[in-house]
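Hi Prof. W.,

I finally got the Acyltransferase prediction working! I wasn't sure whether to trim anything, so I left the full sequence exactly as given:
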Amino acid sequence: MIDLPSDVEAARLLERLGVSSRDRDETLAARPDPQEHPELWRSLERCYRDLTSHLGAALPADGYRALPAFPAEAGPVALHLYVWLYLAVLPRTLRYHAERGIDPRTSWETLSTLGPVMAEHRSVHGLGGVGGFDQWCPPLKFRGTEYKLGRLEYDRGHGERPDGMTGYVLHLHIPSGTPLSPDSCDESFDLARTFFERHFPEEPVSHFACHSWLLDPQLAEYLSERSNIVRFLRRFTLKPRTSGDADRADGDLLEYLFSKPSRQEPVTESRLAVLPQETSLQRAYVAHLRSGRNWRARTGWMPYRTAR
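And this is what came out:
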């Protein structure tokens, strides 16, 4: 049984989760109701059961499936449905954190990334909510799998190691925001080692792992070796590409760099022609695609104990 918070409590929690006043008001106006929105309510119940049944679980080696996006025309209740899902799960998330001895400051720093996700949704889609995005990171945060520690975020989980075996790894996620400076990354890696060894000692980690367009070595063709991005990707040993890899990331960069919807691939010349060219990364994006090539998301590893 899902117990949604009252409007007063929801508004308080949304503020704690970093949600702007405009997004708070639109969320309250889009409250789902089992009688008025029976199909959406059934979807909410399914998602709630899935999230709570995996509470505290590390990611399996074969990953997990994101909660699917809604089309924009589905309306505001659908686009805010996952926000209400997270509000419903939140009390159980906080109890789980407390049982693990995780301090409230880290809990709220992790969970309050919901506000920036909603802001990004409005920037990309021109609409409130989060439902225009596939839900990858937020469900992991609310089930106790992902944590924000300084500049970077980390998923607990099983994964492939460089030797081809499977073991515990920390999967990195790089949120947008402040620069990806070497010092901020070093600080975050140190925080991660301390945090996970203290709160999850039964999960011996061997490597940091990352799958991202930020590890595309083609970036070094356009950016300085002293750039934050190139210095970040040089930390990792890349997994060799195979002919069957589905790693094209043109849409991911389009969304990240230009706040444009990423589902409309391929990126045509007419779309490239109207993109701003204000930063070296924006210029690299356009020049690379115009040369007939594509951007790639690559997988890389970094030893857990020799990150610097």
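The chain has a mean pLDDT of 95. Does that look reasonable to you?

Thanks,
D.
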